[in-house]
Amino acid sequence: MEKVPGSLGTSASFSLRLGQTVFSSASLLFMSLGVEFYSYTAFCYLVTVMGLVIPWSFTLALVDGYCVIVGCTLRQRGILLIVSMGDWVLSFLSLAAACSTASVIDLLVVFQGSYCPSKFCSRYQLSASMAFICWFLVAASSLFNLWLLPSL
Amino acid sequence: MEKVPGSLGTSASFSLRLGQTVFSSASLLFMSLGVEFYSYTAFCYLVTVMGLVIPWSFTLALVDGYCVIVGCTLRQRGILLIVSMGDWVLSFLSLAAACSTASVIDLLVVFQGSYCPSKFCSRYQLSASMAFICWFLVAASSLFNLWLLPSL
């Protein structure tokens, strides 16, 4: 059985998970610190989803780090199925959150200049960008694990 | 090589493609007929994406129908890779469009009652729902084809 780079237990996967943790934390912090995010459904949804991605990615980063150091291989079909499905669901959720946030920001900027002071708006935009990067990394993890799955 | 139900050239795939064509057309029509959709970026984006999904799904529905009637099997790795990647990209695009539209509608309903008469708003909402169903079907097609791919 060949080793797919980026699948569970490899150093590439560890980097992906670290990236996910960093970018989802950044997105959460930009959105929630000092900004009235709870006025908008889409922003609350982004905060909720990022709050799900952070523990998931952090746990899997720990597992990957352990496997890289000890040298174990995680090739059980059940584990890989759960991880792959979790990544799959989270990638859709984070894309949905990022898109909702981006479209709401766009509407706020165009239609309601007074509702969106430039300081807040740039923070919202940064948060949405981080969420997009986070989605991309989660989708990559999902794809790598899904690729390995049928060969087990 | 086992036959994965829902992969290219099966009757399940034909049903999925028909569903995608119907729901994406419905979403496009609800959004574009008699409504000023071009005022909002998210709505224009939805119309663009649905305009991409319709020809893609319709063409593949024709291919699937032909294969079901004639009894051919499409198991070339290249073709399956292209179809699978196309579905993958379109599923992300249609999810993004559906979420953007839904969040903009939500904002319009809550904050700007006068901008969104109930007749228009219900049509926007119907369009977004159709787009979500369309996303679900495209993602299912993508998953089935991707599942078959590594075994070729």
From TrEMBL, chains A, B:
<comment type="similarity">
    <text>Belongs to the Casparian strip membrane proteins (CASP) family.</text>
</comment>
<dbReference type="GO" id="GO:0005886">
    <property type="term" value="C:plasma membrane"/>
</dbReference>
<keyword id="KW-1003">Cell membrane</keyword>
<keyword id="KW-0472">Membrane</keyword>
<keyword id="KW-0812">Transmembrane</keyword>
<feature type="transmembrane region" description="Helical">
    <location>
        <begin position="88"/>
        <end position="111"/>
    </location>
</feature>
<dbReference type="InterPro" id="IPR006702">
    <property type="entry name" value="CASP_dom"/>
</dbReference>
<dbReference type="InterPro" id="IPR045009">
    <property type="entry name" value="CASPL-5"/>
</dbReference>
<protein>
    <recommendedName>
        <fullName>CASP-like protein</fullName>
    </recommendedName>
</protein>
<feature type="transmembrane region" description="Helical">
    <location>
        <begin position="132"/>
        <end position="149"/>
    </location>
</feature>
<comment type="subunit">
    <text>Homodimer and heterodimers.</text>
</comment>
<feature type="domain" description="Casparian strip membrane protein">
    <location>
        <begin position="8"/>
        <end position="137"/>
    </location>
</feature>
<dbReference type="Pfam" id="PF04535">
    <property type="entry name" value="CASP_dom"/>
</dbReference>
<keyword id="KW-1133">Transmembrane helix</keyword>
<feature type="transmembrane region" description="Helical">
    <location>
        <begin position="37"/>
        <end position="58"/>
    </location>
</feature>
